[in-house]
Amino acid sequence: MTDTTADFLGRLTAALPPGTVIPGPEAQDRYCHDWSGLAPVRPLAVVLPRSTEDVATCLRLCHASEMGVVPQGGLTGIAGGAQPVAGCIVLNLERMSAVEEVDTVMATMTVQAGTPLATVQAAAEEAGFAFMVDLGARGSCAIGGNISTNAGGNRVIRYGMAREHVLGLEFVLADGTVVRSLNKMLKNNAGYDLKQMLIGSEGTLGIITRAVLRLQAKPTSVSTALCRCADFEAVLSVLKGARKRLGPSLTAFEVMWPSFYDTMYGGLPQLRRPFGNGGGIHIIVEASGFDPGRDAERFEECLGALVEEGVVDDVIVAASERETRDIWAVRESVSEYGRVLGRIVAFDIGLPTTMIGDFVDAATRELAARWPDVRPLAYGHIGDSNLHLVVNVPSAGDHQPEHEIDDLVYGMAGGAGGTISAEHGIGLVKKPYLGRSRSEAELATMRRLKQALDPRGILNPGKVV
Amino acid sequence: MTDTTADFLGRLTAALPPGTVIPGPEAQDRYCHDWSGLAPVRPLAVVLPRSTEDVATCLRLCHASEMGVVPQGGLTGIAGGAQPVAGCIVLNLERMSAVEEVDTVMATMTVQAGTPLATVQAAAEEAGFAFMVDLGARGSCAIGGNISTNAGGNRVIRYGMAREHVLGLEFVLADGTVVRSLNKMLKNNAGYDLKQMLIGSEGTLGIITRAVLRLQAKPTSVSTALCRCADFEAVLSVLKGARKRLGPSLTAFEVMWPSFYDTMYGGLPQLRRPFGNGGGIHIIVEASGFDPGRDAERFEECLGALVEEGVVDDVIVAASERETRDIWAVRESVSEYGRVLGRIVAFDIGLPTTMIGDFVDAATRELAARWPDVRPLAYGHIGDSNLHLVVNVPSAGDHQPEHEIDDLVYGMAGGAGGTISAEHGIGLVKKPYLGRSRSEAELATMRRLKQALDPRGILNPGKVV
Fold this sequence. Notes:
Two copies of one chain form a homodimer. Chain A is α+β, with helices and mostly antiparallel strands. The first copy, chain A, is 33% helix and 21% strand. In chain A, the strands form four sheets. The first copy, chain A, has a seven-stranded antiparallel beta sheet with strand order 15-12-14-13-17-18-16, sandwiched between helices. A five-stranded antiparallel beta sheet of chain A has the order 5-6-10-8-9. Chain A has a four-stranded mixed beta sheet with strand order 1-2-4-3, with helices on one face. Chains A and B meet through strand 9, helix 7 and helix 14 of A and strand 9, helix 7 and helix 14 of B.
């Protein structure tokens, strides 16, 4: 640590309330890495603000000294967006965790950025509403991280990404300026909508400290089914038919290729398999409604028609909460990859929906040509054009050929007009590949924005752009 | 015209295809003003590009010569966003009007920016979908203008603003850089989502040339009713009850105070009045569904329950398309203000929903205290927190005390935590009042963005920020 760095940390510690700045060597290990699998990095210090003013004070000092700041929420990102950077400090918002207000007439909730997603969901439920951003890491991830990465999840097909659930934001710019834009109204065209710029920018343009969230009416019925189809063409027919018949009631459409489905059931014997080993592509279809006397019947009519049309081969409609949980269990078992596969290389690709079936086949073929024992697991939110692909080469053990696999898959996705990140973001891990799905003009415009709002490049340095 | 200006126009004319640049004195009058009511301004020239390349060429030359450019679509904006600026050129995209592609699997449409909204809607219908941005000027306004102003309209309560219907954009920056970001996927988190910055920036950050629009499944049933309520408290109960019972089927909730309703029926005798002269606040409630065998019944159950609860005093459910048109006719008669009222001062305020009733009463009182013969007409998209207020002082004739009325109403709206523009934008007309609903930190951040993307200030100069 140079004298200058020591001086800086001294000033920072003095400017903030006692206990806010934890020197790097004393910080808990958990601040040293996110879920990206990158090797831990110990920051110079971990700052744990309790208020927006603490965040502003910290950024003002960092800006003055050109000190890099890595913002952290629940650390569940897998693109390395919250991964510490050597020689920088970490600003973790976990102490700014509070539901400040639920407005039942406006159907909004005001929360601090460090609030866990599950806490937000529970507070919405308690007030008779629903917060419709949902993903597997709900218990650990923070709402500020969900917003700064524009999180997706299982119900995007009906409710959209995190962006569509944010009405207002308070954030702090790199120089410590607090921009308080806690709008509660559905419509506000008074000048530029600044929050849009912050959402999805992964902490590189400002640090989100508070948010006004949009709540939804809580559906009074939920119907869930597991369908089996012969091939991807049939899956597309099911999607089209379900959209036409269920309209906005269609709230999830999760597709699992045999590679995913059979591998996860094979590796996790505690899961109860709804069908026998019949092969085919499985789909979880969920509909949510507001007409409980009729919704279940309508859902079954829709599925019945799809069976009659010959696009669905087998279907099970959940008759209880337990059966619903059983249907979702395999889809939610993705946190068990370590146990089932060992080390993996994970993708979160977006592709025009019609091309996804061919892409899975082609990628599987190309990967196998290069690594004969490869296990590429395919599944995803196909209604949103989002394919998850998880790759493991058993013979490579702990040394997966990550870069080679990345090159192959991102090259194919870029060539097909897809995006290298549908929902997980760019962070550190995908930064080298951003040019595969963005043009030079797009990248240059992103850099202009970054330069305008963070001219000294202190916010999450080296990430995204 | 100085020599320099003449030289510039010569270069511009030479660089673009013949017939693209119309010298100002020869330009049709319609390019000299939008629907804001501001006095016409003749631009130096009107440029009518046929391609993105034409737009890029024009901007490159304007940037080099620091020539101001006012982008125009259908010229239907009422905030002056498309109003020419003296000494500047106008860039009207009316010749870039084409539906280039409808993708029925992705449910997207790719269009050129000058395409009229009604053309977009019709093309969507023809393909079996619906494009859900809708507003009174649909026959004249251009989709590029709808996007650059983040237009709202009648179905925001269910489908959101224009922003939520845009998946991709192609736009040209001030220096002529073409940013082609014609994404079709629902999810794309590959770096900053640049289109979000362009949407709603009223042509001050770039000029939109193409868009990929998101289409919706076309509902197979539409039910419409006119309700009469005693007061605003009852209106809020109807909104809450309709949301709970109809969920996402609730697609319009248009409230009309007696000041609007009685004045428009009184002034337009050709309109057929569904109820007698009973007073009260009227609401148009519309539900759209995908279960035609059941939807109408469910709609009537919902309204029946609201009558039984005593929050709705009278209700008429449209039994035919003709009755539906009759119910909407008065709400859509807003283009007839000239005939009914003469000159008006129009507001498009956003307020927390619960405060709207008191705001209407207070504004009416304050206006009457100052101008005893004032006619303040109130109506709006209350489910979206959006109140329209139209003010006319009969005794002032053609010289309405516009600034005094603006000061009074915007002062009240700002004081109540509202926005001075829910959907119409800022343009020229509302620019002096932007500080009433945005903080100095917000305004400074907007100016930073403007400076970053248009450092010479050539795009729609003097507008918004």
